[in-house]
Specification:
heterodimer, B: 5-stranded parallel sheet
Chain lengths: 83, 135
């Protein structure tokens, strides 16, 4: 198991309440495990995008990316917050 | 509730384009990764693309293949059978289009779009295919 370090993060109250509820119901093992896994997934995605930007020498056109995401997901808009 | 896994199948033109600075194929790869989707590359497509990608761009191909999102789909016994069935729908002159058949089989089987430069050929094998034609 990887070494861990305790950190304090601030989240909106409703997010904290939802996570605590999921923990109590057994949907997730713990708030820490859930947040840690989520952060690692985000870091993996951002690392991949950084590698692509280096390989391509640029970021692709945002309009084209949106079109791809809409087609792939069926959503009307791409999700915000890409690296 | 778990999110449904989504993704794209890359055909030869898309994979070659993503490695040779073509804007739309680059956006396809980027968009899939941005959404935590899966990049499905049929083995027959990879083989054909390898021949068309200049050696100077093989480092870009390596980056795409090494992404955690990327799956190279093997051409095993079952896949070969599915490809063979699709190829029977083509004229004899087109029966060697194994990479197109594998791209079609994967796209239809997964219900994912296929980024391709040969939509008409794919549609002839299966009219339900979701072909995203390279501009």
């Amino acid at each position: 198991m990887a070494k861990t370090k305790k950190v304090t993060v601030t989240v909106p109250k409703d997010v904290a309440a939802t996570l605590e509820g999921w923990t109590k119901s057994g949907s997730i093992p713990s708030v820490s495990a859930y947040v840690s896994e989520s952060v690692q997934q985000r870091m993996s995605r951002d690392t991949s995008l950084q590698k692509l930007e280096t390989a391509f020498g640029r970021r692709p056109d945002p309009g084209m990316i949106d079109a791809v995401v809409r087609r792939m997901t069926g959503r009307s808009e791409a999700s915000p917050g890409a690296a | 509730m778990p999110a449904m896994i989504s993704g794209y199948v890359l055909d030869v033109a898309a994979l070659v384009g993503a490695c040779t600075r073509e804007p739309y194929p680059e956006a396809v790869v980027w968009g899939i990764v941005q959404e935590d989707g899966v990049i499905a590359i049929p083995a027959a497509v990879l083989a054909e693309a390898h021949a068309d990608i200049p050696p100077s761009q093989h480092d870009v191909l390596a980056v795409i293949l090494d992404l955690p999102n990327t799956v190279v789909v093997g051409l095993d016994r079952d896949a070969a059978r599915r490809c063979g069935t699709l190829l029977t729908r083509l004229d004899a002159a087109d029966r060697a289009r194994v990479s197109a058949a594998q791209a079609t089989a994967e796209g239809v089987g997964r219900r994912w779009p296929i980024a391709t430069g040969r939509a008409e050929l794919l549609s002839r094998m299966d009219p339900t295919v979701d072909a995203d034609t390279m501009p």
